[in-house]
Design brief:
about 625 residues; methyltransferase; Methyltransferase; seven-stranded mixed β-sheet; transmembrane
Length: about 625
């Protein structure tokens, strides 16, 4: 058995090899036969019964030829494609052509008239917000270019004659056919703002660059601010929407920076130490009342060493008391009250000449802290952030200036003179008071925006065209780099720092010699429709994602942008696609382009223009 074993093993292997070979050959033959018949489109099936062991049983009659149909008999429904939301923004009724949502006259009557609180910001509830496009008035025309616009505007754009009658003898504004002419007059300067400013210039130096930013309270048609521009002084003019109807709107049509506002019960929307000069020319603010609260607020926003200028009642009351229809005693008491409040704030009265009086704020509070023993009020504020100024209630305490090492030091740091101030490192940065911002990052940011603005001008030729735009808005300004890059162009920029921004940089913007304001973009801005020729938006929609609707912000942009005005929006590409879809529904013309660094950046840039349209003729439906 041991001898035969290898032979039997070999024979068994050989038999298995034959089986495998025969199986392969049969499979190949059957495959080829099947392929041949399948290529002819039919398979012949014999109807006779096959063996019970057959794997597949087919039935047929009369040995017929049958075509097998392998198509599916049951289908699952395809999912419905996502339905894009259809945006629809019809024009508002013509009566809304001058609609200011947060200063609406009809809504304001619900609020307290004491201290004119009803004229402060009171924004509509969510269910009251208009979802339509505010129409320009019939006949609206593109405003005159600067500097011609300083003295001229189209009557159709601001169709109001009230001031031409009420202020006829004060040279505020005149109607000349289709045009409005602004001679440059004011209540206290009927000979013109230029002559009035020259008179101020004889009392304080307006030419050496130490005064760059100013604020005008109760500005009228903003002639004071308009004529300071030629002296390189940039003024924020403000006045309420009151019986004078459209004084701020007149200012904006002239190409002069202005906002709707009033000094009543809440802080003005600016950080502490913002302005080099504050001005009131017969602004009718009761400066001495309410424990001096209004002058305390002016003190908060004046930089150390800044000036407050007052003309009109009660200054020079000895000459004007009859014309003002007030008694000598009343006017004397009013001036005495103002003088007392100013002293309690440690201000020094520099001069009073004819109708002009000027006070100066101290450069630090070394002496002021000592004289609290004499002036028991106001005390120094202890808790509230001096830069917080969005719906922040005014207080009757004195905002303390930053500490100094010596009595001659300037609190918060010395500001460079203009124009060096624009690119000098702002003291708020050099002092380290803004975490994460350094001198190097400030310089890098300035250079970055020079590069970006140069890129913008290559894409948007209108921005590069001198005189095409005048009133500009930067909705998320950060350090004011966009405005700084345009400083040599004949434009002004309102730099907005959103209250939701991670860092409050508005103080830096003012220290650069630029102007701005706080704003919550979930609400309307305190300005009239058609304020701006151009709007710049940097990462704003990312900031407000999940805070309020994109369409609400865009409708507000539509309200404050002039017909044929332009916008540039920088943001993530997905956000811009959504913005572009809404803009299309608003009948804007826009296109998305690559980032200035190339197509591989997720951040893209949207260039868009608002189309020209107006309300129909009054006799049309």
């Amino acid at each position: 058995m041991a001898i035969l074993s290898p032979y039997l093993t070999f024979k068994a292997k050989k038999f298995n090899l034959y089986k495998i070979t025969i199986t392969i050959i049969l499979c190949t033959v059957f495959y080829l036969v099947g392929f041949y018949k399948d290529s002819r489109g039919t398979i012949s099936i014999n109807a006779t019964s096959s063996s019970s062991s057959t794997a597949f049983r087919c039935a047929s009659t009369n040995h017929s030829t049958t075509t097998l149909d392998f198509a599916a008999r049951h289908f699952a429904q395809d999912p419905k494609p996502p339905v894009a939301r259809e945006h629809h923004f019809p024009p508002c009724e013509p009566k809304f052509s001058e609609y200011t949502p947060c200063e609406d006259v009809e809504r304001s009557v619900r609020f307290d008239r004491d201290r004119l609180i009803y004229r402060e910001r009171h924004c509509p509830e969510s269910h009251e917000i208009l979802k339509c496009r505010v129409p320009p008035p019939y006949g609206y025309k593109v405003p005159f270019s600067w500097p011609e616009s300083r003295g001229l505007a189209w009557y159709a754009n601001v169709p109001h004659k009230d001031l031409t009658v009420e202020k006829k003898n004060q040279n505020w504004v005149r109607v000349e056919g289709e045009r409005l002419r602004f001679p440059g007059g004011g209540t206290m300067f009927p000979r013109g703002a230029d002559a009035y400013i020259d008179a101020i210039g004889k009392l304080i130096d307006l030419k050496d660059g130490s005064i760059r930013t100013a604020i005008d309270t109760g500005c009228g048609v903003a002639s004071w601010g308009a004529y300071l521009l030629s002296r390189n002084i940039l003024t924020v003019s403000f006045a309420p929407r009151d019986t004078h109807v459209s004084q701020v709107q007149f200012a904006l049509e002239r190409g002069v920076p202005a906002l709707i506002g009033i000094i009543a019960s809440i802080r003005l929307p600016y950080p502490s130490r913002s302005f080099d000069m504050a001005h009131c020319s017969r602004c009718l603010v009761p400066w001495g009342k309410y424990d001096g609260q209004y002058l305390i607020e002016i003190d908060r926003i004046l930089r150390p060493g800044g000036y407050w200028i007052l003309s009109g009642p009660p200054i020079n009351w000895e000459t004007h008391w009859k014309g003002w229809n007030r008694t000598r005693e009343h006017l004397r008491a009013e001036q005495s009250q103002i003088e007392g409040v100013a002293k309690s704030l440690c201000w020094r009265k520099l001069v009073q000449r004819n109708d002009i009086a000027i006070w100066q704020k101290p450069t630090n509070h070394v002496h002021c802290k000592v004289n609290r023993k004499v002036f028991k009020r106001p005390l120094f504020c202890k808790s509230q952030n001096p830069d917080m100024a969005w719906y922040t209630k005014m207080e009757t305490c004195l905002t303390p200036l930053p500490e100094v090492a010596g009595i001659r030091d300037i609190a918060g740091g010395q500001l460079a003179k203009w124009p060096e101030r624009l690119n000098a490192i702002p003291p708020r940065i050099s002092s380290g008071s803004l975490e994460g911002l350094t001198a190097n990052s400030f310089v890098e940011n300035s250079e970055l925006w020079k590069k970006r603005v140069a890129y913008y001008k290559k894409i948007d030729y209108q921005l590069a065209k001198t005189g095409r735009y005048r009133n500009l808005l930067d909705m998320n300004a950060h350090l004011g780099g966009f405005a700084a890059a345009l400083v040599d162009d004949p434009v002004w920029v309102m730099n907005v720092v959103p209250v939701q921004a991670k860092m409050n940089t508005l103080g830096v913007i003012f220290q650069r010699g630029l102007i701005g304001t706080y704003q919550n973009w979930c609400e309307a801005m305190s300005t009239y429709p058609r304020t701006y020729d151009f709007i710049h938006v940097d990462s704003l929609f990312s900031l407000y994602e999940n805070r309020c609707g994109v369409e609400d912000i865009l409708l507000e942009m539509d309200r404050i942008l002039r017909p044929e005005g332009s916008v540039i929006i920088r943001d993530d590409v997905d956000i811009l696609l959504n913005v572009k879809a809404i803009m299309d529904a608003m009948q804007w013309d826009g296109r998305i382009t690559d980032h200035e660094s190339g197509p591989h950046e997720r951040e893209k840039i949207l260039f868009a223009t608002k189309m020209y349209w107006t309300a129909p003729r009054p006799d049309q439906d």
